[in-house]
Amino acid sequence: MKQLPQVYRPFIIAAIVIALTAGGGLGAINLAAMAVGGAVGTTWLAITQAHGHAQIFGWVGMFIMGVVYYVVPRLKGRELKSPGLVAASLWLVLGGIVLRLIAQPLSDGVPFGHLVVLSAAMELVGVSFFVYLSLNLLTTDAQARAFYDKYLAASLVWFWILTAATLTISVYSLSLGIQVIPYAVNAAYLQIGLMGFVGMMIYGMALRTLPLFMGLRAPNQRAFDIIFVFLNVSVIARALVMLAADALDIQLAPWLPLTVSALEYGSILAFVWFLNVFRKPEINIAETGVDQGYEKYIRAAFVWLLLAVTMSFGYSVYRFVTGADVDSAYIGAYRHALTVGFISLMILGMASRLVPVFAGDKLHSSRLLNATFILVNAGNVMRVLSEPLAREFGGVFFVTMGISGFIQLAGLALFGYNIWQTMRLIELVAPKEAATSSKADDSGHSPRMELPLSRRPATGRSSAKTLQS
Q: Does residue 3 sit within a domain?
């Protein structure tokens, strides 16, 4: 069966292009428009939702699809069952994202409302292909399953549910002739996307790679089995509470939303604690030819995650005590702490570690990696702080909010150039080696992915390790 050694490339390129345009680019323009207008809260709600959709399905979704298509077959020593579906999943999801971006702002009229439904249907078919191929790799051989596989499989299931919900909501919106997803429905929708699909994938990949990459203490598998259950229950429970209380206007006991929020908070705190990412590594790793700069991305991402979930739980406590809703400016700050701070920094960090391995070469520029880290974090600190402060005090905080998006965008642009140059080097320097390494072995299975880890102890002598399941 034909191998796809460069399968990740079009997905990662698409993810970066979307991040720079419909993602970070449109987001920066939106923030600047709010600053100029002197008001927190966009008047371009349909465009903002299309931007958020592009971020989840494009920037994050396309990146995850490319990494999973490349990594999981090598971890499992097996080939993709139907490689022809890979290209179909790429073009269907990408086409759906672009079509929604164009059609949703105009979807209160014909034919654009129908085009939004078509875009969602395209995405559902493309994501179904991706989930089918990926779950087949994860679930076929019971003996080869690892404890972190359940996180990856749960993420895939949540991705399919999210995409099916996109189609359902699109049909519902068309029937009402509205452009935007109702707020209460959108909150539950984002919970499934961010904490279900994206969160589970990051957690699973972190469990698989970070102990090896960063020399962390081996994961406590029993603890992560239990945490897995609580994390998924919290996603379901929070989504249902949001729908019941807001969309269906059901009067819930005041303690219920707080309890559900506490479940999510405690589960994530436990995950970070047992991951040992903030503890001293057990092994002092210095990987030959590998820029260690990705480690600060990983740790900073988990700091942002802890900040985001602390904010979310704090909002739940505030609602419980006062009975009042939390202002949208504070919700926006929380979401950007989660999406840009945690999710985007994890993507940037993991990409700077994995893409050079995929390409068979070193990262193009360590300086650009460091500059990206500074710009994205600085921009997000400004963004998270200035939105609530602009709501309360106005003035200079609107200026800060208005420029924060462009600072983040500059960081993403540097990242995109760095990764593009890294991927391009393999074709210029060693195309023959790349093709040779992709061939299947005599048994018909694809070779397991080997990520060299030259661990350099204090003595200065190194021992080679490989990332194999």
A: no
Secondary structure, 3-state, the chain: CCCCCCCHHHHHHHHHHHHHHHHHHHHHHHHHHHHHHCCCCCCCHHHHHHHHHHHHHHHHHHHHHHHHHHHHHHHHCCCCCCCHHHHHHHHHHHHHHHHHHHHHHHCCCCCHHHHHHHHHHHHHHHHHHHHHHHHHHHHCCHHHCCCCHHHHHHHHHHHHHHHHHHHHHHHHHHHHCCCCCCHHHHHHHHHHHHHHHHHHHHHHHHHHHHHHHHCCCCCCHHHHHHHHHHHHHHHHHHHHHHHHHHHCCCCCCCHHHHHHHHHHHHHHHHHHHHHCCCCCCCCCCCCCCCCCCHHHHHHHHHHHHHHHHHHHHHHHHHHHHHCCCCCHHHHHHHHHHHHHHHHHHHHHHHHHHHHHHHHCCCCCCHHHHHHHHHHHHHHHHHHHHHHHHHHHHCCHHHHHHHHHHHHHHHHHHHHHHHHHHHHHHHHHHCHHHHHHHCCCCCCCCCCCCCCCEEECCCCCCCEEECCCC
Q: What is the CA radius of gyration of the chain?
A: 22
pTM > 0.90: no
Residue-range definition of the domain harbouring residue 413 = 8-465
- For the ranges 34-48, 245-259, 270-284, 309-323, the maximum mean pLDDT occurs at 309-323
**Which of 47-56, 253-262, 280-289 is least confident?**
280-289
Q: Token pair 């359940």 is at which residue?
A: 150
Please state the rounded mean pLDDT for residues 171-182: 86
Asked, for residue 392, whether it belongs to a domain, the answer is yes
* pLDDT value of residue 429: 43
User: Quick check: is 305 in a domain?
Assistant: yes
pLDDT one-digit tens code per residue, 86-120: 999 999 999 999 999 999 888 776 788 899 999 99
| pLDDT at res. 202 | 97
pLDDT higher than 90, residue 314: yes
Q: Is the pLDDT of residue 317 over 80?
A: yes
Average pLDDT over residues 359-387: 94
Instruction: Render pLDDT for 390-410 as a digit per residue (tens, 0 to 9).
Output: 999 988 999 999 999 999 999
Is residue 372 within 8 A of residue 415, CB to CB? The reply is: yes
Domain count, the chain: 1
> How far is residue 467's CA from residue 213's CA, in Å, rounded to a whole number?
9
CATH code for the domain of 263: 1.20.210.10
For residue 1, is it within any domain? Answer: no
